[in-house]
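Justification of computing resources. Each target in the renewal requires a structure prediction run like the one illustrated here; the chain below, 157 residues long, is used simply to show the kind of job we budget for.
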Amino acid sequence: MGKEIERKFLVKDDRWRSGACGMECSQGYLAAGPPVSVRVRIMDDRAVLTIKKGVASIVRDEYEYSIPLGDAQCMLAELCEGCPIEKTRYIVMHEGHKWEIDVFHGHNEGLIVAEVELQEEEEPFVKPPWLGEEVSGDPRYLNSHLTKHPFRLWRNG
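Resulting structure tokens:
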């Protein structure tokens, strides 16, 4: 079993885009928790099934398995709850840490989130200048929550 230790932030401007390369991502949830979520994701030509269980606000148990692309496409079309998550994921290195910036499309258009995975909960890292407010502890920004409560419905309220 793996542990995911992740901090999540809103992105306040586009300075991160210089040199960033993106991959299209579609994902949906067979179970959207809490405390357990079961996700199917297609990123480029790779498909995975991921099971996560929340332990603390930034720590989750995580199990991830490669699955056939056709199975993932079928699951996304027929088995997932709520609206699909559609986004472009960009990878940006900053001061020795890999940042994943998700630019959401579709029902969550307008939302841009940056995540950094850490080895330890208290691991220090240098915040890039384009980071905004930290939302690690806010469940509204979990992808599993966004499938049932899309950003476009709550961003103005």
